[in-house]
C-alpha cells in the first residue's frame, strides 16, 4: 500500500502556520552560544532554544530537533539542553561544538505549554475532526521555516532528529517536506497495524492517533516518502514500545523505496537495547549528519 505526500497531508489536516520571531536572549555557554527564543506560531507564543557555534563565518548546516515525550510534560524543548535519562549527552551543545545550528520548540502540552492534559487536549481536537499529531507537525514545519530563514543557516543543509515522539515527528515531517535533507529517527519506527494486533499500541500517547490513517497507509510507506533523501533508523530490539514484528513489517515496506540508493537508508538495530539512545546510536547519528550535511 502506497500513499502520496498530498494525500498524507490531507488525512493529517496538515497546514503550516505563519511564524515570527518575538524576542531572543543570547548567552555564551562554554564553547557554544545559546539563544533563548520566543516565537509566535499562528496566534501562540512559544518557547524555543537554539544552539550554535559562537564564531560563525559562513552559513552552517542545521538540525531541527523534535523533543521526546516520556511523560516529561514539564520538559519540552529543554531536552535539547538538559537531556533525558534515556538519552546520551544533551545533543544541542554537542551539535553546536561540531559546527551545527540546532533548534527545538516546545510542542503542545510540553514545557511552558503544559497547561492542559494530553487526554483533554487530544480528545477536544478529535471531536472537531482534528488531531494533536497534525498540530505538532504543523508547528514543526513553521519552526523549520524560521530555521531556514536565518542568515547563519545553510537552508540547503538542514536535517531532522528525534527520539520516541520526536522520532515520529521527524520522519513524518521529512515525508511531508523536502527542505529536510537528511533525517535520523530513534525508537519509534513500527507498523501500527501490527502494533494493534499485538496490543502494543496502547503504550503510546493519544497525541499520536490520526483518524483514518491506517485505512490508507502505515509507518513504512510514510517513511518511504522520504526516499531518496538519506534516512537513519535506530531501534532497540528489546523495546516494548516497538515490538520486533512491527519493526520488521515497517522495514519491509520502507526498504524497497531505496532500491536505487541503498546506501542512503541505514538501520541500527541493537537487539538488547530498550527504549533508549545507546552510545552506538549516538555515534551513528553524528556520523550520518557529518556525511550528509557536512
Structural category:
alpha/beta
Number of strands: 9
Report the helical percentage. Answer: 25-40%
Number of domains: 1
The overall pLDDT average reads 97
**What is the spatial order of strands in the main beta sheet?**
1-2-3-5-4-6-7-8-9
Low-confidence stretches: none
- CATH H-level name... which superfamily? Alpha/Beta hydrolase fold, catalytic domain
Q: How would you describe the shape?
A: globular
Q: What is the H/E order?
A: HEEEEHHEHHEHEHHEHEH
- Nearest-angstrom radius of gyration? 18 Å
Percentage beta strand: 15-25%
Oligomer state equals single chain
Name the CATH architecture.
3-Layer(aba) Sandwich
CATH topology descriptor: Rossmann fold
How many helices? The count is 10
Describe what you observe in this structure.
This protein has ten helices and nine strands. With 294 residues, the protein is α/β, with parallel strands linked by helices. The protein has one domain (5-289): Rossmann fold (3-Layer(aba) Sandwich), CATH 3.40.50.1820. A nine-stranded mixed β-sheet has the order 1-2-3-5-4-6-7-8-9, sandwiched between helices. Strand 1 and strand 2 form a beta hairpin. The longest helix is centred in the middle third of the chain and has 18 residues, at 132-149.
Briefly, what is this?
The chain has helices at 5-12, 79-82, 91-97, 118-127, 132-149, 165-176, 192-198, 219-224, 244-254, 279-293, and strands spanning 19-28, 33-41, 44-52, 60-66, 101-105, 153-163, 182-186, 231-236, 265-270. It is of the alpha/beta class and 294 residues long.
Amino acid at each position: 500500500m502506497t500513499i502520496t505526500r498530498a494525500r498524507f497531508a490531507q488525512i493529517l489536516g496538515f497546514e503550516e502556520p505563519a511564524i515570527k520571531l518575538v524576542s531572543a536572549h543570547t548567552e555564551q555557554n562554554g564553547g557554544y552560544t545559546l539563544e533563548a527564543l520566543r516565537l509566535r506560531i499562528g496566534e501562540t507564543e512559544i518557547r524555543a532554544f537554539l544552539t550554535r557555534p559562537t564564531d560563525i563565518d559562513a552559513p552552517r548546516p542545521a538540525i531541527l530537533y523534535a523533543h521526546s515525550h516520556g511523560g516529561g510534560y514539564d520538559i519540552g524543548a529543554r531536552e535539547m539542553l538538559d537531556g533525558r535519562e534515556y538519552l546520551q549527552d544533551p545533543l544541542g551543545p554537542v551539535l553546536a561544538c561540531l559546527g551545527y545550528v540546532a533548534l527545538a520548540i516546545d510542542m503542545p502540552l510540553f514545557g511552558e505549554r503544559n497547561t492542559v492534559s494530553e487526554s483533554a487536549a487530544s480528545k477536544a481536537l478529535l471531536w472537531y475532526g482534528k488531531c494533536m499529531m497534525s498540530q505538532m507537525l504543523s508547528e514543526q514545519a513553521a519552526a523549520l521555516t524560521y530555521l531556514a530563514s536565518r542568515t547563519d543557516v545553510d537552508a540547503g543543509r538542514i536535517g531532522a532528529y528525534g527520539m520516541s515522539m520526536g522520532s515520529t515527528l521527524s520522519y513524518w515531517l521529512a515525508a511531508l517536506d523536502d527542505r529536510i535533507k537528511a533525517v535520523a529517527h530513534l525508537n519509534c519506527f513500527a507498523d501500527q497495524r501490527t502494533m494493534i494486533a499485538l496490543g502494543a499500541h496502547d503504550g503510546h500517547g493519544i497525541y499520536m492517533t490520526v483518524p483514518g490513517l491506517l485505512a490508507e497507509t502505515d509507518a513504512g510507506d510514510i517513511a518511504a516518502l522520504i526516499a531518496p533523501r538519506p534516512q537513519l533508523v535506530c531501534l532497540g530490539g528489546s523495546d516494548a514500545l516497538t515490538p520486533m514484528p512491527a519493526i520488521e513489517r515497517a522495514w519491509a515496506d520502507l526498504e524497497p523505496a531505496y532500491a536505487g540508493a541503498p546506501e542512503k537508508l541505514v538501520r541500527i538495530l541493537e537487539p538488547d537495547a530498550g527504549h533508549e539512545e545507546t552510545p552506538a546510536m549516538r555515534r551513528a547519528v553524528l556520523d550520518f549528519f557529518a556525511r550528509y550535511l557536512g
